[in-house]
From TrEMBL:
GO terms for molecular function: S-adenosylmethionine-dependent methyltransferase activity; tRNA (5-carboxymethoxyuridine(34)-5-O)-methyltransferase activity. This is tRNA 5-carboxymethoxyuridine methyltransferase. S-adenosyl-L-methionine binds at R26, G49, A50, E70, H114. It comes from Stutzerimonas xanthomarina DSM 18231. Belongs to the class I-like SAM-binding methyltransferase superfamily. CmoM family. Catalyzes the methylation of 5-carboxymethoxyuridine (cmo5U) to form 5-methoxycarbonylmethoxyuridine (mcmo5U) at position 34 in tRNAs. The keyword Iron does not apply. InterPro entries: Cmo5U_methylTrfase, Methyltransf_11, SAM-dependent_MTases_sf. Keywords: Methyltransferase, S-adenosyl-L-methionine, Transferase, tRNA processing. Gene3D superfamilies: Vaccinia Virus protein VP39. GO terms for biological process: methylation; tRNA modification. It catalyses: 5-carboxymethoxyuridine(34) in tRNA + S-adenosyl-L-methionine = 5-methoxycarbonylmethoxyuridine(34) in tRNA + S-adenosyl-L-homocysteine. The gene is cmoM. The keyword Translocase does not apply. It comes from the Bacteria.
Amino acid sequence: MTDRHFDELATRFAEKIYGGAKGAIRLAVLQADLAEVLPQRPLRVLDIGAGLGHMSLWLAQQGHQVTLAEPAEPMLEGARKQFAGAGQSATFIQAPWQEIESQIEGRFDLVICHAVLEWLAEPQAILPVLHRLVADDGRLSLAFYNRDALIYRNLLKGHFKKLRSQTYAGERQSLTPQQPLDPRELAAQLAPHWQVESTSGVRVFHDYMPADFQARTEPADLIEMELAYRRHPSFAGLGRYLHWLCRPL
């Protein structure tokens, strides 16, 4: 297994994720979580695996100094176009996470690492790099594909063969990540160096709704309810993604 980048899937990714409710819910939850904790001053922000730059653009529009690092040129070009269209500036680096430290200076008030770990051959290998990049009083915004949610989805579909064989990875052309993460394993890996300050589920119920229910529900209502239940003790762990805000120890 190798790290997977999105050169050939950039357009499909943009259309499927950010062209509908899934992307809207994801951005709403991540932005709500960050808005609660970010200090009211300009921050130095690094977005690792920035993709099309949706989160970075939101932060730049609030006056933060943003650096986007993305290995796939089609994705980075999409981010550049988004920033240009919005009249915002940023630093753009085409590089995988292994090369980021050699191309930047200093540490950051906020490091974003959203939907990256599940596409890596060895997700735990990036954790020391993230720790070195975050300032002592900074934060890491970590969002990852939740293996528990994928298991639950397969249970609901009756895909018991997959569960017996523990075959969780998606096909090569699938947008199901190659390595969904077990939250307990990740928590144990973070524990020596990070304090997880808050946790939220991203899409805690949307992806389990029957398609006809999804179709006749207003997007604003979906977002309202996802925000309301993102930290519910019974439902947060069912989020398709989990969002953890972490401080270095």
